[in-house]
Amino acid sequence: MNAIATRWASAEETMRRLAMTVLGALAVAAALIFAAPAHAQNAQAQPSPYGLEEVVAAGHGFFGSTSGAIATAIERAFSMYGLPNGYILGQEAGGAFVGGLTYGEGTLYTKNAGDHSVFWQGPSLGWDFGGEGARTMMLVYHLPSVDNLQGRYGGVAGSAYLVAGVGMHVLKRNNVLLVPVRTGVGARLGVSVGYLKLTNRPPARSNRHAGETGPLIEAALYIATGFLAAVLAAMIVAPAIWRRAVYLTRKRIEASVPLTVSELQADKDRLRAEHAVAEKKLDVALRKQRDLSTRQAAEISDMKATLKDRDASIAERDATIGDLTGQLDATREELGRTRADLEATRLELNTTNAALSALADQQTRYGALEDRLGETREKLRTQQGKARDSRAEARQTAELLKTERAKSAEMDTRLERAIARASDLEDKLARREKEITRLRDAQAGEEADLQELEQRALDAEQERAALEEELGDLTVRVARITKQLDGQEPEAVIGARDVKIAQLEADLKSERKRVKALTEQLEKHEATSADEGEAALRDEIGALAAEIVHMASLLEGEGSPIPDLVAEADDGAPQGTVSLAARVRALQAKARRGTGAPPPVGENGKAAETDAVSS
């Protein structure tokens, strides 16, 4: 089998060399055809150029009905090469079968050199078939003189039309260009390489005057035509020779090989079958490999998706941990503020407890005052009878009564101030109650936040153990805060305080009612009461007002301005009359003796004086 393949390869190489030889001969013939010498130029005046409209008008008169296509070709030539200084109008005929010949004649038109007859002929070689007769306009560029037009112009031409057509190509000799524009009638197809020789005489007369050049050219043309005909014949006969060579080569190979054609065919079929089986195995292995690659690609895609999900989960956990850390920091700050608020609240509770203890003592005093008020009512009934007898004396003491009324009005004003102070105390107690309620709500919110933080910390305990430790510390701190409350529930302390505040408010209301009743009784009986009854009633009112002022001072605590006002008060009462300031100082002294507290100091730096006034 290897020997057969080698012989086939040698036969193909032989045919390839033969084809290359034929093509080389064609190339040499074309080179010989275009190797003609050019004539020298004559030094004459260069013709003037023509404009586009002039050339188009001449073409219209020459070509007639086909002038539209001719005008398009002329415009294209003008756009490519510029203005010509002459043009040729004439007819030509030609034909080709691989090699071709063209003959024509016409008239050269110039502006300043006149009109001249022109004849042309020339061969061509190439893939060109057909024949034609054509009208031709040749645009002449860069023509220095009329005599320089004569010579050989080489170029490449192509045609493709049936019955009729328009064509244009370019021929060149030295610096002179010829652009033939043809309207052909016939059938022509192909591309060829050739030249046109332009003369001012017909071809026969030109040959007689040309000496030996004409016969040499004709001989060269005949030789080229014969060579081309031989090549054409060789190309026609080559397929038969090729088939004969193949047949003889096959017979020679069969004779040299000890196997018959059937055996060779069987061996070839066997090899083909083995190759098919091997190819099938490779195909199956390739499919398995592709399936494996597909599965691996799917697994890789799944793993990428899983990695993306894990990255997103890690990022979400990091964000959650950051949020939890921020919340823990905020919770620590809030706990610090809550701890400070609890300390302040504890101090306020201690102050309030002291005030409530003082109010409890005042309640006891209020009971004694009620008893005294009952006795006073009895005395008033007794004095009413005496008042009837002492009306005359009442007229004499009218001036004194006016003075006492003024003092009573002043005492009423002070009483109203004390009542206003008590009202301010109620407002302050209400604000304290709201603050305690807000702290209770804040503590409940903190407990809920702690539970939520503990739940979140349990979810992230595998990644952030430090967070669990901080939550543990936070729980210990909350327990410590709870322990600092001395084992008491904040709700119980606030409830006891609310009860005491409500009791104080009720006592204040009852005392206000009593003062109002005593004032009304004083107004009703002031006209008929005697000096002794008025003095007793005035003493009762003063004592009650002193009790209320003292109670307000205790409720307001150390920041109360009442001690300073009492210290600065001017005791302008007549001799034998105890003023409200003196009564308040006596109550304060009694309270200090009971508690062992130092005397209060006013704004002027002096201790408030206390007068021992008996009830």
Walk me through the structure.
The protein is an alpha+beta fold and 615 residues long. The protein has 13 helices and five strands. It folds into three domains: 34-210, Rhodococcus equi virulence-associated protein (Lipocalin, Beta Barrel); 336-560, no CATH class; 561-615, no CATH class. Strands 1, 2, 3, 4 and 5 form a five-stranded antiparallel beta sheet that branches. Helix 10 (490-525) packs antiparallel against helix 11 (531-556). It is elongated. 22% of the residues are buried. Residues 28-44, 205-214, 570-574 and 597-615 have low confidence and may be disordered.
List the helices and strands and how they pair.
Elements (H helix, E strand, L loop, with lengths): L1 H32 L18 H12 L3 H15 L4 E24 L5 E27 L9 E18 L2 E3 L2 E24 L3 H7 L3 H44 L4 H129 L1 H6 L1 H62 L5 H20 L5 H36 L5 H26 L5 H7 L11 H16 L20
Antiparallel strand pairs: 1-2, 2-5, 3-4, 3-5, 4-5
Helix pairs in contact: 1-5, 2-3, 6-8, 6-9, 6-10, 6-11, 8-9, 8-10, 8-11, 10-11, 11-13
